[in-house]
Amino acid sequence: MAELLHTPLFGLLLTLASYRFAQWAYAKSNSLALFHPFIVAAIPVIIVLPLVGVPYEEYRDQTALISFLLGPATVALAWPLYRQLHTVRSVWRPLLITVVIGAALASGLAVGLAWWLGAPETVVGSLAPKSITTPIAIEVARVTNGDVSLAAGAVAITGIVGALAAGPVFRLLRVEDDRIRGFALGLVAHAIGTARAFEFSEKAGAFGGLALGLTGLLTALALPWIWPWVSSLMG
């Protein structure tokens, strides 16, 4: 049994079982945002790893296959987007304007606030890609001299907060258009927000996937070019 703990099978089984438990808890809570599977699934892992003496670095290696599959899973979002292509074509101009302004604000506000509060450049560089999906954010954080682990944490927190806040914010602002709901979630809260958008409808999920891709692409292209100028301003 002890030998099983140090094989990829343990990490995969623990992850899948935790996610299945999280799905069950989410359904029992009537889809309450606080019980979103992304949040709840982490709890069994956090509890079990110290109990069985498996360090996080080993668990990360054990689940490398799941991390690898994140890429194809992201690409699969193209299918619902294809099914909504006729709708996207009718609003492509406002979508492009929104993604340019939204991506700039999502990154700029985090960088500006961290710099204003006196955070070190490593922290500021880690927060810059907080609103894009993790695989892209990690590469961007290396360009902005950020810490990869901190950047991944910032991405996760941004997604969780976005998913939790989406319902109350949409109700407060009376946003009932699934195109707007999905695009806002994908732009601000990346993959987690897109998963939340699919709970509204397939159309919302498709627009979330579109915003996720466009925001990641724009941020990955613009930040390496802009960052030397931002870094010089921070001194």
UniProtKB/TrEMBL annotation:
It comes from the Bacteria. Keywords: Hydrolase, Membrane, Transmembrane, Transmembrane helix. The keyword Nucleotide-binding does not apply. The keyword Lipoprotein does not apply. GO terms for cellular component: membrane. The chain crosses the membrane at residues 6-22, 34-52, 64-82, 94-117, 150-173, 204-227. It is a multi-pass membrane protein. Its main location: membrane. It is found in: Membrane. One of its GO terms (molecular function) is hydrolase activity. It holds the Pfam family LrgB. This is Effector of murein hydrolase, putative.
